[in-house]
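Standup notes
- HV: blocked on the assembly model, inputs below
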Amino acid sequence: MESAIHTEHLTKIYRQRLIAVNDMNLDVPQGSVFGLLGPNGAGKTTTLRLLLGLQRPTAGRAEVFGKVCGPNAVRVRSQIGYLPTNPRLPGHLRPIEYLDLLGKLCRLPSQVRKPRISALLRTVGLLGATEQRIETFSTGMCTRLGIAASLVADPPLLLWDEPTAGLDPSARRFTLDLIRELGKTKTVVVATHILSDIDQICDHIGVMHEGRMIFTGSTQDMKKRLRCEDFKLELDGDAEEIGRLAHDLARLEGVDVRLDAGPALLVRMTKDHSCAGVLAEVLKSVDNANLSLKAIHSGPNATEDAYLQLLQEHEAHGFHC
Amino acid sequence: MDSTAEVVKLGPRIMPYLAVLQHDLMTLRASRLVRLWLAATVVLTLMLMAANWTRFQDGPLIASLLFPYLVFPWFFIVVALGVSPVSGSRADVVADGILSRPVSRSAYLLATWSARVVLIWGVYLIVMVPAVIVVTLAKRPVPGDTVTIYGIVSAMGVVGLVLTFLTSLAFLAGTLLRGPLLALVVLVFLWYPVGLILSVFSLEQFSPISLSRAISTQLRQTLSTPRTRADSNARAEETPVLTEGVEYFLKVFSGALSAPKATKPDFFESEEFRDFSLLRIVLGYGVPTVMAVVLAMLCFCWRDL
């Protein structure tokens, strides 16, 4: 698969003091929804700004659709729709004026610009706010307008920096659905530290830590990095019965069982055993013990666990990824 | 290729430039600073006209109206308007909102510079053109003067050029120093002793004070007739009148301030005073203006945002 974004030894050092991006090699496949994951200060925003040419790399190079990024790379920016974190918008303008200005900056003729602006305002749910000045907008409305702004030129690549930051649950849901929808036709890069967002929308992930890209690959690849798979069984019944069940299950091969509050059982399977087989045995034992099974939670935090594991490994190994 | 096709191609190419220019002009026009400046310059012009109506001939009166643009106090406004486009917190808004789009940095910078120059010229001409028309056409109880249309246009052009130069200098300072307040302070400290600095290099005729004194003579120039000794003598005789005018202006404006003195008083009495050359002034201010814009562009095109 061809790369939408390709970086080679991309490095950014601020004033010879702070290493924001450290020797980054990255390939983002075309058509993917790529989650750029990392804690605050990991270098995600700097990476996006390097791709946009807002900042110059100290070393290395970055390419978007085969074109080299830089401060004067207008052709690169014409391929990108950028949404900054909490976008700072010109407050004295109204949404249509702002989008019209951006359309002109993207060299869109009036007959293309005008219908697209109204379609975008409808898409992001701001049709009712066209009379308002942007300075009166809430955070969520600003983000929606920022999203519309990034889509004005209908670019094939979207770089969205923390698109769900500061959004209420419905706005967040809307944004995630929109990313999923856009991901069908475009390459979308979402920089965030919110793992649940990544889990829901991304098919590829890059994990950054202290300026380094410590993992790139598919979401499945990342989850596979987990040492083991955990299940939590929520049970209904006598505590003594549950304790007895835990004791019996502990005898099973390839499984580690612990009692948890709830009451619940935490079941951890080791790698060299069939997950499905062991789980079937466990469920059979539950049934035999006359306990009722309220719920099974199978690794709801798999991405989070894998992510934290990656960070721990990176901190422990120093230079090695 | 026929010219229509060229125009069609040029349209999209300059669309971002025109969009930024239009947007900046609208933003500036709506700003309090510009509105206050416009109001203040109208009031000051009316005050100066009223105060000197029966005292000065056309030339010195127009020169006194141009003085605030050349020396004080509009220098501050022009500089304040010039320093801000790509400095301070505005730089972030610009980066996120405009320079992340397919706009070249040079096009953006040129457009914001053009917007400021157009606005400053606009405010200056909106006030000065009617004032000059009133002064030249009105019947006043003073002896007639030989002010010419060419003289008025060239003198106002020179003042406009100085304003353009100041804008460009502020633009460069704002881009280099990044902080608008710092740039403003640096320019104030640089511009006020400029007469002293220029006198070191024997370039007094370029100082704003010298220009303001030479303006009334320039107002009487014609396009075809070269200057004569008589003109120069008339100009030399007028110098004390103009100095008095400047003193009067400063008293009107600030109460107790004394008039600024020429760094070399004998400069205006010497033969050098006759060497006021429009071409030299245009080159003397025009070339640094272009250099300031080019330097600002070079600096801005390669820096991080």
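- HV (later): unblocked. The mean pLDDT of chain B is 78. Chain B has one domain: 15-302.
- Next: hand off to the docking folks.
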